Amino acid sequence: MKLLHQDSRNNEIKLMPETIDDLWHLSNLIDERDLIFATTYRRKEDKADKLRPERVEKVRMRLGIRVQKVEFHESEDLLRILGVIESGAQDIGEHHTLMVSPGDDITIIKPEWKAQHFDRIKRAIASSERPNLFFVAIEDTDAVIAAVREYGLKEYATITRNPQGKMYDAKPNEAEFIDEVVGKLALVLHGEPLIILGPGFTKEALMKRVKEKLPDAKTVTVISTGQAGMVGIHELMKKGVGGKVLEDTRVAQETRLMEQLFSEIGKDGLFAYGEQQVMTAVEAGAVKVLLVLDTHVRSKSVDQMLRAVEAAQGEFHIISSMHEAGRRLESLGGIAAILRYKIQ
Hints:
The chain is α+β, with helices and mostly antiparallel strands and about 350 residues long. It is about 30% helix and about 30% strand. The chain folds into 3 domains: about 1-125, SH3 type barrels, CATH 2.30.30.870; about 135-250, eRF1 domain 2 (Nucleotidyltransferase, domain 5, 2-Layer Sandwich), CATH 3.30.420; about 250-340, CATH 3.30.1330.30. The protein has helices at about 20-30, 115-125, 175-190, 200-215, 230-240, 245, 250-265, 275-285, 300-310, 325-330; strands at about 1-5, 10-15, 35-45, 60-75, 80-85, 95-100, 105-110, 135-140, 140-150, 150-160, 195-200, 220-225, 270-275, 285-295, 315-320, 335-340. Strand 1 (about 1-5) and strand 2 form a beta hairpin.
C-alpha cells in the first residue's frame, strides 16, 4: 500500500493498493457512510441515448460516492464499493459501484479517523515491504502449494501422485510427481522464501529438485511435521517455528495470539471472551491484549473498548476472519482478551 496524500483538516487520505492484500485492508478500512473518490466508468449522459440505450457508451470519470456496502473478492483481485453518487459530473443521487484493483488510487474521507484505521494503514504499508512466503506441504502421494497473505492462507494448487478411479493414469514414480510439483511452483514462486514441510523423506527430494530447477528460490527451508496438506501448514504455524520470515507474517502472529489465549482458557488463567466479559475487563483496566474479529470492529461498543485499551497502554489486534485464527475467535463471540490480572 502506498500513502499518496493526507489532509488532516478535511479528514482525507489518498491511498494506492498494490496487491490483493491491500484490497483486503481497504475492505476493512472503509466504513459505511465514508465518502470515496475513485476513477470509474459510467454511461455518458445524453438525452438521445434514452431512446437508443444499445448505443450508450461508457466514459471514464472520477466520482465520489457515499458508501453503503463494501465487497472484497479474493478470487478476482477486486474490491467493490457500492453507494450513492454524491460528487461528480453527472447522475448525482444515483447508485453506482466503484471497482478498485491493485494500482488504482482511492481517496477516503471519513467523519473521523480512529486509532484502528491508522493501525490498518500502517500494517498495510509495512506488509508491502516484506516478502510473501510460500509453502509446499508434501508427502508420498499428495502435495499442496499455498502462500501466506495478509488476510490468511491462500491455496494455489493440489497435486496428487496416484489419483483414484479409471479416468486417471497413475504416475509411475516419485521423480515425475516431484517434477510436477516443481512445475506448479514455478508458476507462482518468484524469489520469495519457501518452506517445504511434511512427514517422511519426500520433502528432502523436493528441496533438491527445487534448487536444481528454480535458481530464483534462494531461501528454502525444510521442516518436519506430522501431517502434510493444509493441516500440516496450520500445524506448523501453531508451533510458531519456521524462521523469522514466518514469525513476522500477520497470520502467524494472529495464530500465536489465539494459541496463547486458548492456553489461558485451558488453565483457567488470564482471559476474557464475549462482549460482556471483555467490557468488564476493559473497564477494570485489566486488558493486556485485546483481540477483535475484523467483522466486529465497526460496532460502537468495540470502538469504545479499543480506545480504552489504547489509553491504558494495552495492545489491540484485529484478527482476520478469513483464516483459522479468526474462525477460533468467532467461536468465542468475535472478541476476547488476554489479561494483566484475573478479575471476577
